[in-house]
Amino acid sequence: MKKIFYEACVSMLMAALLTGCTKKFADINTNPAGYSQANFQPNYILTTVQQAYTGSTDFSYDTWRANLIYCSTMMQGFSTVIGYWVGDKYILNPNYTAAYWGFGSSQGPPLGNGGDGAYPEQVKPVVDLIAFTKNMPQYKNLYQIARLMRALIMERITDLYGDCPYSQAGLGYYDKTFFPQYDKQQDIYTDLLKEIEDATGKLDPNGDQPSGDVFYNGNTAQWQRFGYTLMLRVAMRLVKVDPTTAQTYAQKAAGKTFANNGDNAFVRADNTGGRVTINRNSQILDGDGGSENIYTKWSKTFIDMLKAESDPRLAKIAITHPTWDASKNPTGGNADTAVQKGMPNGHDLSGIAGQDISTVPGYTSIADYSSPSQYLTKRDGVTFILTYAESELLLAEAAQRWGIGGTAAQHYHDGVKAAITYLGQYDPGAAISDGDAETWLTAHPYNAADGLNQINTQYWMHTNTMLDFYESWSNWRRSGFPALVPVVFPNNNTNGTIPRRFPYPVGEANTNPVNYKAAHDAVPGGDNLTGRVWWDK
User: Fold this and answer.
1) d(CA 267, CA 215)
2) Of 214, 378, 418, 475, which residue is the least packed, with the fewest Cβ within 10 Å?
3) Region 270-276: what's the mean pLDDT?
4) Would the pTM of this model clear 0.90, i.e. be above it?
């Protein structure tokens, strides 16, 4: 009897368990840590995209090679005697010029160093973010911000290479476009302006505030000002090839751009977060991958200009005899402006007379040349994306050219003042007071007769202090200012002229052969360092 009762109880218990399991089968057998369209948080992708834009998410290969080795030295912001820093020698290293592009523009195989570069690390995730949020009303502002981020990302890629995958880039997962076409740069710029205008106009102050936004913490009003500032920069790229369009969009942006340095877009790195989250420029300049901390200096061109005008920025951005702690965190040096000395570009350690830096007149020691200060190279420092100073200087040029958006003199004043005082956002120790900035501006007023030179030379100086040498190079190519004197280095690849673009990655000949060949063959001046992008006439 007991056995029968026991068996009956077991049977009823199993039935109950089976019934319960059947009713809750989906809940019990769903991995709570798994992601799907229903539970995935797209704000994380925005954070990824913004972080990736500040530099490679592995070991800074794109930052190291494109921004520093090439752009910084070609633009005579930095100078170095390290053998593989070939930018100011005008020598082509195809792996280095390909680094920013990365691997194939759909999702092809890696081109060196683990697949770093803009297409895999920036374009692909931002395309994913746009696709994910496009038809989700709860993410309407996140969607528009993603469109602005895509425009920001693609502007830099096309500025470096010219025609490039744009409309079909990153779509391999969605529509099997594994061999994206190279859009004409003119078409890319036309679409960038339309995208920026549309996305900025659709940002809703009453909508969602994206929590993954490391630029503005979801502040829609600041994103609107960012959108118009980006529109202005894109428009001004066209002054040589399409001044009508440039003027039209500059007019649309005027009065709606950044209001002050509080609108500056930047990412502050986290030194405790490991290699992925430290400041990329600092990682290289502090010597993580080589001897850049010893041999990379401010250029003589740049330091001489600051010294000639007693510019207050010199005391904050330059030091001689730099020092680091045991972990290669910068700790300081001699900031006395009287001893600052820039290193001339185009020299090395070959031992050849006139070519080796030690044989150059005035040489004393490497340590006597000016290094970037500890404020600019902190591991937890700032990477600037877009600034108020840039917007005001571009508005000064728009006013000078077309008489729109106020007076050139006022925008120039406000832009230069911002370019001097913003340094405090790097570190309080780098701060320069409004009064000191005003004193300098009173002594160095705007001169309309030399206006374009003044404006764009200040733009160059500002983007140098931002360590945004991509932008220094792009604005120099489109404006021609400052009037840099090319270096003369043996066996260079440009006949002694400053390079105008990066050649396409040779790996594209294998991953996207037909489209690559058509673009390669169509580059004005050839697919080399002296060829030109469309807007660079």
Assistant:
1) 6
2) 214
3) 78
4) yes
